Amino acid sequence: MKLTVEQIHVELGHRPILHDVHLEAQAGDIVGLIGPNGSGKSTLLRTVYRSLRPHRGVVRVDGDDVWALSARSAARRTAAVLQDASGHPTGMSVAEIIALGRTPHHGLLGRDGADDHQAVESALDSCAIRHMAERDVTSLSGGERQRVLLARALAQQPRLLVLDELTNHLDIRARFELLELIRSTGITTLAVLHDLDLAARLCDHLVALHAGQVVAAGPVLDVLTPGLLREVFGVAATAERHADGIVRVTYAAQPLALEPIREAKVS
Ligand SMILES: Nc1ncnc2c1ncn2[C@@H]1O[C@H](COP(=O)(O)OP(=O)(O)OP(=O)(O)O)[C@@H](O)[C@H]1O
């Protein structure tokens, strides 16, 4: 499944938030979206999972404009796991939450069939959460809940996964495990990540946003240059591939002076 974001422009509150943004993810690619606070990452994700219609430009999933598809049809292709994982009502079990991922696949009667059951079982296993299937979802820790939300997204059997800071609440081992899990699914993925080391570890390509514009895109080391780290993130840092094949970012002891968050340019 290929994702193409073609020259999108978004305004919110009469202010330009995204300007002329273009990006592509080839089938099976994991693309990391990086950028400082307020640079437009979540807004861009919202246009991709069809929660926000861009003022100009097109988002294509498998070649189709997502706004030309029905909401249900778009949801069969794209699953999103978002930052705020705390809004579930008491009384729903983990298995019931995961089963909600099957909704776009249901017919008019909305009944669960064998395929739905199988998809939920498989998501429980792949996310290693079978032991908590009957727990009330509100009783889980932040990290456990994030796993459940990923399981719900996998049960949706999407062709595109959109992840907004999925690793926020996770301890370091859980982060690595979840990243491995995402890689093992082979699903085309667009992921917002603040941790640049994790982004470098997980992603095939990075796209850097700054003030609502793409300022760099490509292989990890082509994007994480000292110049970009200084100009966009305001840190003196270098990224290098180590002997074990992993790219790591080394930060200087002294941060550069804090700069105000930049806003998108008026077109
Ligand atoms: N509904 C809205 N109305 C007006 N401005 C908005 C709205 N939603 C977001 N913005 C602004 O759009 C800009 C981009 O926000 P966005 O959440 O996309 O950034 P982000 O890169 O995901 O930030 P962070 O890393 O802090 O999560 C910010 O300046 C934000 O204040």
UniProtKB/TrEMBL annotation:
Q: Which SUPFAM superfamilies match?
A: P-loop containing nucleoside triphosphate hydrolases
Domain named ABC transporter is located at 3-236
Where does the source fall among the domains of life?
Bacteria
Any one GO MF term held by the record is: ATP binding
The record's listing under InterPro entries reads: AAA+_ATPase, ABC_transporter-like_ATP-bd, ABC_transporter-like_CS, P-loop_NTPase
| UniProt keywords, alphabetically | ATP-binding, Nucleotide-binding
Q: What is this protein called?
A: ABC transporter ATP-binding protein
